[in-house]
Amino acid sequence: MDVRQLEMFLAVVEQGGYLQAGSQLHVSHSAIHRQIRLLEEELGEKVLVKRGKSVHPNESGELLIETARTVHQEIARLGKQIRDLRTLQSGQLRIGTGTTALTFFLPPVLERFHRQYPKIDIYIVTGTADNLIRLVSTGDLDLGIVSESPEGPSLEKYIHYEPLFDEEFVVAVPRRHTLSRRKSVTWTELKSLPFISFPKESRIRRLIDSRFRRAGIEPKIIMELENEEAIEKMIEINLGIGFLSLRRTRSEHLHALQIHGERIFQKVAAVRSTGYIATKTKEFLRLCTEQSAR
Q: Please, what are the domains in the chain?
């Protein structure tokens, strides 16, 4: 039994006859008939029967169909993987992420990937986690580096999460703020202070709001801005305070405050479609995992 025989067998089953199968495969129908006969001799069983002018699989043939299709799929998958190896010499890798990950986590990963695979173009887009996951699920992005949902494990179908690291968030105040000499602050002390926040649909906003609710506090939101750079700038000029990733507060303009008695972390993960993963995506994921372990 060889692959070509299985291909001919499937063609006969799908086309309903030897003549039609020969036309599809560009092989004489007599050659297909001969190969099917050799296949049946090897199996010791008939796999096809004639009904009127059509040819159909019998019970043994039905069993063979499943195996033949599996073999065909595995060969196709192998061929794709082999061709995919060549894409490390060309092509494009499409990545979606948030601004913090792009600024603080991804640069060394991008540098290493570009050094190892200089012929692959890297396309990057930023946005909310929910929107980026949608783009991954539709195939418009190969990979997303996003915050996990505070509500728990993702319910998206056909999306796989690979945890990378935990991002700590703290209260950021300008250096000249009255709280800048403190190391921590209570939720109650934050109640009357003006807050510059992320949009309501963002995952970090949902996480922070859940902590406020748990403390029985309604924050005084004066601005809702889409990215951390904008929030950081507004805090720097003393228009309000806000939650930022700890990495962003390590500057001469900001001071970080932890919430007294607790710390706030948000999990960051790589998201991709389930099923086959392209070699270029797999390599980028490997570098992300190595970077997160440092």
A: 3-87 (1.10.10.10), 88-165+267-292 (3.40.190.10), 167-266 (3.40.190.10)
Q: The tokens of 285 are what?
A: 């994921």
More confidently predicted of 277 and 93: 93
Residue located via tokens 């939101």: 221
Predicted TM-score of the model (pTM): 0.67
Do 187 and 212 touch, CB atoms closer than 8 A? yes
Q: Are 244 and 233 in contact (CB under 8 A)?
A: no
Cβ(49)–Cβ(58) below 8 Å: yes
List, for residues 124-140, the tens digit of each pLDDT value.
999 888 899 989 988 89
Is the model's pLDDT at 278 over the cut of 80? yes
For 61, the token pair is: 């043939």
What ranges in the chain are assigned the alpha helix state H?
A: 3-15, 18-25, 29-43, 59-86, 99-100, 106-116, 129-137, 187-190, 203-214, 228-236, 279-292
pLDDT of residue 84: 62
